Amino acid sequence: MITKEKILSHLKSYFGYDSFRLNQEKIIDDILAKKDLLAIMPTGGGKSLCFQLPALLLEGTAIVISPLIALMKDQVDALKANGIAAEFYNSTQEQSEREKVLSELVKGEIKLLYISPETLPIIQSYFSKITISLIAIDEAHCISSWGHDFRPAYTELGTLKALFPASPILGFTATADHATQDDILNQLNIPNAKKHVSSFDRKNLYLEVRPGQDRLKQILEFLESKPDESGIIYCLSRKGTETVAKKLIDKGYKAQAYHAGIQTAERNQIQDDFVNDRTPIIVATIAFGMGIDKSNVRWVIHYNMPKNIESYYQEIGRSGRDGLPAHTLLFYSFADVIQLRQFLKDTPTEKFQLAKLERMQQFSEALSCRRMVLLGYFGEYISEDCGNCDICKTPPKYFDGTILAKKVCSAVARLKENEALGMVVDVLRGAKTSAVFNKSYQNIKTYGQASDVSWIELQQYIIQMINQGILEIRFHENGRLLLTPLAKKVLFEDEQVKLAKQKPKEERTKKARVAATKSYGLFEKLRTLRQQIATEENVPAYIVFSDAALKDMEVILPKNNVEFMQVSGVGEAKKSKYGERFLTAIKTHLEEDNKNKQNQKVPTQDQTYMLFEKGLSISEIALQRNLKEDTIYGHLMKKHQEGENIDVEKYISENEINAIKQAKLKFPEEEGLKPYFEFFEEKMPYWKIRLGLYLIGE
């Protein structure tokens, strides 16, 4: 019998974790009970551990099927770094390597074998000679024609259950709506398998959408605050990737273009440079990233809008996989919508894909919490704003746009509902173009009636009217605008229309312009050491340790091997290989830091308060001081205790204070904050718990 103690012992010894995340424990329990299942978990949510840990505990070899050949080596290297017997078998290997893998497989020396679906028919005959502990199918959405990334080779996997009835069949994916989930189970011939659907909420990802004007200029401003950070810029076209990459290089950035038209060897080298932190910025089509398990991507930019929310979610999911904060930025323009509709024209699932594109457009145009829209698409609903998207951080200012809306509706009517958005804007602004004059539109009554509104602003207001159902756009009829029944109410019944004022450009980019302080603290020193070790071992840096592990070292400041084992991500193998070097680096830093502190005259909370007094936000202070936001809140609480006039109560709601008050009845004071954190299912941050207890005690 596999006990709970043994499971947790393996979790710490091999993977360096003390506890499970999300639904991991429930999924692992079902796998150990040899049950078929489908697990929907967000990228970075720990899917791989769900089958890797049971593979160590069960007798035999686990077969892992993945479409991502480029990812197999990275995953196997990571497993080997943790002292686990793992191998992959695919077409990139020499014949002698493949024969060696098969020999070890038959001898029972491999606990996890990674293969592609195309490879399965080649080596399936060997499976009758071994005990198969489980069969895990990664990126399981690829088996469904309803999914966003259908792969024909996956359809052959439906025979596995009949061939190996004693082995649990496990589907794993990060992106599947309800229709796709059911189709996956049917295609895999496990229709009654249990579904484990974890939260799709990646709280560490900041979601931002901006209008697609002056994109390159905005990107350059954005990058000013991201020195030395890894990121991906996605473009729709190959030419787009090359153009953007060249302009970034011309501005002094290390960047490379990546698309399917580049020779395989060169593409592999570009990917390798990115994985190993030699090239921090990749400008790519969607062909890039699926085969990368790089945990320290700190930002993702969409130069163009993706064709559906699944693609968007998967692509932004390539950032912040280590759980640390990451920034996602989507540029949205109406031209992208038109282009994507053209791509989908006459495809077998055109109607279905157009509906998905419309949902993506709605997300881009949202004037309410973006995370609500994103999670709602996957059937997960939240009742409160997330506080970590552009809408929540700086809510739009609404104004009474009824008169402007009447002018727009009147123009659409006088143009006989036969013109697209661009022409409507030109007519309302009184443009003197040949297109306007050739049709004598300068003679209609609404010509020039909105000449005081800029072209871009008027375009955005009309898009809002489309989103509110006042106007309808007929994409299949050259994008012409039509009046809806609601438009008639606006025109003839004085129906009020609220429009959101576009934020000034300076306000939109303020955060990007905050000076980035080059950090030479402990984290940077540990990053440098990690890179040295990665170079010595010829593996990506994140395989040595993730950014999250380095951040944990920065917090714990371990002084010996026992304390080093408390770091998340440190198991027995990594303690033995790297412990001494990292402990030495931490000790040296602390000695230097103590010398510096002796010379430091201004207390750290006072430094924070000075910036707060200048009007900087919490996130801006944290960025400038290279500290966590949690720490900044703590500094402000200290200054409040010292008598400074800081309205700390605005950072916590009355409901949250009452919840903490109730929780306080359950825990003795000497137990600290961790019981509260676990009681609130890790959804309330430590700083807020600390603040609530402080206010209760006042």
From TrEMBL:
Tell me which PANTHER family the record gives. ATP-DEPENDENT DNA HELICASE Q1 (PTHR13710:SF105), DNA HELICASE RECQ FAMILY MEMBER (PTHR13710)
The GO cellular component terms are: bacterial nucleoid; cytoplasm; replisome
Taxonomic lineage of this organism?
A: Bacteria, Pseudomonadati, Bacteroidota, Flavobacteriia, Flavobacteriales
Q: Which GO terms describe its biological process?
A: DNA recombination; DNA repair; DNA replication; SOS response
EC number(s) given by UniProt: 5.6.2.4
Q: What is this protein called?
A: DNA helicase RecQ
Q: Which cofactor does it need?
A: Zn(2+); Mg(2+)
Q: Which family does it belong to?
A: Belongs to the helicase family. RecQ subfamily.
Signal peptide location: none
Q: Which NCBIfam families match?
A: recQ (TIGR01389), recQ_fam (TIGR00614)
The answer on whether this UniProt entry bears the keyword Repeat reads: no
| Helicase ATP-binding domain ranges (all copies) | 28-194
Instruction: Using the record's annotation, list all stretches that form the HRDC domain.
Output: 516-596
Q: Which organism is it from?
A: Brumimicrobium glaciale
